[in-house]
Design goal:
Layout: E1 18-26, E2 45-51, E3 58-59, H1 66-70, H2 81-98, E4 106-109, H3 117-122, E5 127-130, H4 134-142, E6 147-148, H5 154-162, E7 167-173, H6 182-192, E8 193-204, H7 206-211, E9 224-225, H8 228-237, E10 240-248, E11 254-261, H9 271-283, H10 288-291, H11 294-314, E12 319-322, H12 326-334, E13 345-346, E14 364-365, H13 368-373, E15 377-380, H14 386-392, E16 402-405, E17 411-413
Parallel strand pairs: 4-5, 4-7, 5-6, 7-8, 12-13, 12-15, 13-14, 15-16
Antiparallel strand pairs: 1-2, 2-3, 3-9, 8-11, 10-11, 16-17
InterPro entries: Methyltransf_Zn-bd_dom_put (IPR013630), Methyltransf_Zn-bd_dom_put_sf (IPR038576), MeTrfase_14 (IPR013691), SAM-dependent_MTases_sf (IPR029063)
Domain Methyltransferase putative zinc binding: 9-70
Keywords: Methyltransferase, Transferase
């Protein structure tokens, strides 16, 4: 186990003394259990999130090494139809906007199973994946996506540079939050980017996390939670300028930032950058006080969720889950929701079926189980794709089944 005994900011190294939210003790969110593991001791770690008074980076101390978290990873991106569409649309946008072609090289950091790079490859554009999880990288290689199995940082960037490789487009979707050493990571991107190259990074937006009460997106794999103000500061520190930004609906509200070398004036800074920075400052993200207001909101949500569950079970109603996402494990463990409330959950990924959720030990079955048991309520744990799930599972209405989500608040969908 690795612990940050000094509890210092991972960007500016200031002491961390201010709590953003404390979600108690929780297991690693993607550490799904096999039947034989249910009788063994299960490690729990503090899920106590701090905000740095100096730079306002919201962050979780490091308790477990990335090697242990990501070496055998249960998340495969290709099992979400909406995420594949997002990847296809992104590819089209990048090619049309920046003109990438067969002379370019597109590199994705944390490329998972090749879900995104496959669409660049279809257009004849050379691609390279960088993925630390061996089991996931193997799936990408099988799909014809060349993939290096390693963590990205300055060492990897220098090695690739020495091999004559640099990126025209350097992509990182939902990886920035997973990086324990954010300075080494961003410095590595600076090294690996061609002089006129473009970086795009997508990550959950702290402003949306707070506005929409998305505390369940906090788990040990996510070391940092970024406002635009803070991420702009970090990139500028390493000689990278954010020249544009898109606000996306993915993962409950994400940012896609576009960055270039500070010395590259070919991409002017857009008005969207100025507008978002101004909105965040007006909302309080330029100061500490606003960040400290989140705790009470989360506590109130927990009480409302438990009230709903107790009242529903007292009426003799059955509840099952849909999905086994990491965010669901944070929610269930923080609220102490186990099989006394949720009979089981289902997931489309065969890599999760037959396992149990960490901490709560709720069993994971195939979606076919829902037709067999006909539950009264289907709790959608990946609430960010609730429309997709409700369309796929619309048949539960045949027996009067209803959908529910708990984030940002308890809501029933008939």
């Amino acid at each position: 186990m690795i612990t940050n005994t000094e509890n210092r900011c991972r960007f500016c190294k200031s002491h961390l003394n201010h709590t953003f939210v404390d979600l108690g003790m929780s297991p690693l969110a993607n550490s799904y259990l096999k039947t034989e593991q249910l009788q063994h001791m299960e490690p729990f770690y503090p899920l106590h999130v701090y905000v740095c008074k100096a730079c306002l980076l919201v962050q979780l101390p490091l308790f477990e090494s990335p090697d242990n978290i990501f070496s055998d990873y249960a998340y495969f991106s290709s099992y979400s139809d909406s995420w594949l569409k997002h990847a296809r649309d992104y590819t089209k946008l990048m090619v049309e906007r920046f003109g990438f072609d067969l002379r370019s090289i597109v590199v994705e950091i944390a490329s998972n199973d090749g879900y995104l790079l496959q669409y660049f490859k279809e257009r004849g554009i050379p691609v390279l994946g960088i993925e630390p999880a061996k089991n996931v990288a193997k799936a990408a290689e099988k799909a014809g996506i060349p993939t290096i199995v390693t963590f990205f940082g300055t060492q990897t960037a220098l090695k690739l540079l020495n091999e004559g490789k640099q990126a025209d487009l350097l992509i990182g979707n939902n990886v920035l939050a997973h990086v324990p050493d954010v300075n080494d990571f961003v410095k590595g991107m600076k090294i690996f980017l061609k002089p006129k190259g473009v970086i795009t990074m997508e990550f959950p937006h702290l402003m949306q996390l707070m506005n929409e009460n998305q505390f369940d997106t906090i788990y040990h794999e996510h070391f940092s939670y970024f406002s635009f103000i803070t991420v702009e500061k970090i990139f500028a520190h390493h000689g990278l300028t954010i020249f544009d930004v898109d606000e996306l609906p993915t993962h409950g509200g994400s940012l896609r930032i576009y960055a270039r070398h500070a010395e590259d004036a070919s991409q002017p800074v857009s008005q969207r950058v100025t507008d978002l920075r101004t909105r965040e400052e007006a909302a309080g993200f330029g100061g500490l006080e606003h960040h400290l207001s989140f705790t009470e909101k989360v506590k109130k949500t927990k009480r409302n969720i438990l009230t709903f569950l107790i009242e529903t079970k007292q009426k003799g109603k059955s509840i099952v889950g849909y999905g086994a996402p990491a965010k669901g494990n944070t929610l269930l463990n923080y609220c102490s929701i186990r099989s006394d409330f949720i009979d089981y959950t289902v997931d489309r990924s065969p890599h999760k079926q037959g396992h149990y959720l960490p901490g709560t030990h709720i069993p994971i079955h195939s979606p076919d189980t829902i037709r067999e048991t006909k539950p009264d309520y289907l709790l959608i744990l990946p609430w960010n794709i609730r429309e997709e799930v409700m369309e796929q599972m619309s048949y539960i209405r045949e027996w009067g089944g209803q959908f529910i989500v708990f984030i940002p608040e308890v809501k029933i969908y008939p």
